[in-house]
Structures are given as structure tokens and as C-alpha cells.
Specification:
Helix content: 55-70%
Order of helices and strands: EEHHHHH
Number of helices: 5
Structural class: mainly alpha
Number of domains: 1
Shape: globular
Number of strands: 2
Strand order of the largest sheet: 1-2
Largest sheet: 2 strands, antiparallel
Strand content: under 5%
Distance between the termini: 38 Å
Radius of gyration: 18 Å
């Protein structure tokens, strides 16, 4: 649930049991943290991450405005996978909007609010970005919400691509 805890979740296929594991290896945290912060590319990677995150905030605001016009929450699964993916974009975006926006805005905040300059503000921003001082149920919701970025990106690209054909 966030890189601060590096959670691994798995579903056992034969029983359906959910296994949640919190590995405490420093190597995993260092690798994941480096990829998350600057794509392991140093300064250029840091700027790529920051710009991409700012673009995500703009897209989230724009997405809410566009959704407000249609207010679509229907997913038609019988009309083919392309239609279902397009339909899924709207309700998933709305359901995950608050947390995806919090994660993106605090991600930008973590880039510019330095611990040495504003330690208390940095702690608050980091807590909201990583959910590290939140309860387990909140951290689980955060983890699920991070999948919203993947769903939105995949369905958004598919919608864009479809409109170009």
C-alpha cells in the first residue's frame, strides 16, 4: 500500500484465499522508490515523473469536467470488449477520482516541498501520498485506487486510438 510499505497481494487459485504480505527488505524498497521517484534516471527522470504527474492532475480535472456533462456510469459488457473498456473509463474514473487526485497532487508536492525547508508540511504531504500512518483499511483502499491510474490510462488510450481510426 504505497511504496512506503511495499505490499504484495496474491489470490490463491484453488481456494480463493487472499494473502497479503509486507516484505521488509530494504532492497525492494530502494529499487521501487528509485523507480517511483526518478525512473532510476537521475535528474532527467525526476523531471519526467514531475511533468507526467502534473499532466495527470490536469487530465483528472479535465476528466471530471467532461464526465459532468454526460454523467455516464453504465458499463455495457455485451457490446464487445472495446465498448466495455470505453464504458469502464467513466465510472472507474469517477470512483477513483478523489484518491487519484490526492495521489497526483501530493506526488507533485513531494517533489517541491523539501523536508529541510518545511518538515511538518512535508510529513503531511508524504502521509497523504503514501498512506503510511493510516489504518490498514485505508491503505488497502489506497492500493486499489492506484490501479485506477492503470485502468484510466489503458481505457483512455483505447478511446483516443478508436477515435483516430
Amino acid at each position: 500500500m504505497g511504496l512506503s510499505t511495499s505490499v504484495i497481494a496474491a489470490v490463491v487459485g484453488t481456494t480463493g484465499a487472499l494473502i497479503i504480505w509486507f516484505p521488509q527488505t530494504n532492497l525492494l524498497r530502494r529499487i521501487a522508490g528509485k523507480l517511483h521517484q526518478d525512473l532510476a534516471l537521475g535528474g532527467v527522470g525526476w523531471w519526467l515523473v514531475v511533468l507526467t504527474t502534473i499532466i495527470a492532475v490536469v487530465l483528472e480535472i479535465g476528466g471530471l469536467i467532461l464526465w459532468w456533462k454526460r454523467k455516464s456510469m453504465t458499463v455495457r459488457l455485451t457490446s464487445g470488449w472495446k465498448r466495455a473498456l470505453t464504458d469502464l473509463h467513466h465510472p472507474m474514473g469517477l470512483l477513483g477520482w478523489i484518491l487519484m487526485t490526492i495521489l497526483a497532487v501530493t506526488g507533485v508536492g513531494m517533489s517541491f516541498v523539501l523536508p529541510d525547508d518545511h518538515p511538518e508540511l512535508r510529513r503531511i504531504v508524504a502521509d497523504f501520498h503514501t498512506a503510511r500512518n493510516f489504518s490498514l483499511p485505508v491503505r488497502i483502499v489506497y492500493s486499489i485506487a492506484t490501479l485506477g491510474f492503470l485502468v484510466q490510462a489503458a481505457s483512455g488510450v483505447a478511446m483516443w486510438w478508436k477515435s483516430r481510426l
